[in-house]
Write a structure and sequence with these properties.
11 helices, two-stranded antiparallel sheet, 5 strands, about 50% helix, 2 domains
């Protein structure tokens, strides 16, 4: 998309090769190539790592192996262990930890409930991607993260799956509103992603009952010499109002759904938030144990 379209006219480049991201077998082979250079502990299973890294590119996998080797070297280990690979995967997926960042107790409590809201809704919804990790340790530009990983490579998404994704995105803001009786800027990225997903459902994927199986607008995809990607408007003002109305309806209904899930499982939300405040990070097994244990008291406000 950054080439002059004239270069791709018939007769100039007769063959165009599409290089997709590797599937699970491809990821395993790529990991095997890069891992030949480092001593692996007996517990390292490259098949498990390949299954647990859907969507990774070849460069991501090379980075994963390098990061695991660095983590092991910093601890003076003779072999790179499976734990080093898991920690390296978190770094590749979620960014570098910023433990030096000072966050007040009040803000930490807000972040804990926000991430607990995402995690609770994700665990409750059938068909949602399994939870991988929840943390309130700042990583990259995020103050906290709830990470999900699909069980298998996915190439096609159903309407139900997308509705669940939007509902999960709005779980953090819903938890803030219910428990803390406030809204924060921390949900800004979630709202942007939810709105964009709803827009694509309506305008690109024909998933609006009101507007039917139609697409609206055409992407101007050529960005040669700095031209921006735009969406040409090929519909009336009345249709534009209907599109806006449908996008709003989808997002608002998903927000109401997220609130209902949290209100019906408020004890579990408190349990997750308390555990996050105590441990800062929870993996999938810890989350499962907490959500299936006895109810906890609400996470206390800072003194």
């Amino acid at each position: 998309d950054v080439l002059d379209p004239a270069l791709l006219r018939p007769g100039r480049f007769d063959r165009q090769v599409v290089v997709p991201r590797p599937d699970v077998r491809g990821r395993e082979e790529i990991l095997r190539v890069h891992a030949r250079r480092i001593p692996l502990a007996p517990d390292v299973d490259l098949k498990v790592l390949a299954r647990g890294s859907p969507g990774f590119s070849g460069a991501d996998l090379a980075n994963l192996v390098n990061e695991a080797a660095l983590l092991a070297a910093r601890q003076n280990k003779k072999f790179v262990e499976m734990l080093d690979f898991e920690n390296a995967k978190d770094k590749v997926l979620m960014g570098v930890e910023r433990r030096s960042m000072i966050i007040s107790d009040t803000e930490k409590r807000t972040i804990a409930y926000h991430e607990a809201g995402h995690a609770l809704v994700a665990d409750f919804l059938p068909g949602a991607d399994p939870l991988h990790k929840v943390t309130i340790i700042p990583r990259g530009r995020a103050l906290g993260l709830t990470m999900q990983l699909p069980m298998d490579d996915q190439y096609n998404y159903s309407r139900d799956y997308l509705i669940n994704r939007i509902t999960i995105l709005l779980g953090g803001r819903s938890a803030e509103e219910i428990v803390l009786n406030q809204q924060t800027t921390g949900a800004g990225d979630d709202l942007e992603k939810a709105t964009e997903m709803a827009r694509k459902m309506v305008c690109e994927w024909g998933m609006s009952d009101r507007l039917g199986p139609l697409t609206f607008g055409k992407n101007e995809e050529h960005i040669f010499l700095g031209r921006e990607v735009t969406r040409a408007k090929d519909y009336s003002e009345d249709t534009a109002l209907m599109i806006d109305s449908e996008i709003k309806r989808i997002v608002v209904e998903c927000a109401s759904r997220a609130k209902k899930i949290i209100e019906d499982n408020i004890e579990k939300l408190h349990a997750l938030a308390r555990a996050l405040l105590e441990r800062e990070s929870l993996d999938s097994e810890e989350i499962a144990r907490i959500l299936r244990a006895r109810p906890f008291e609400p996470a206390g406000a800072p003194a």
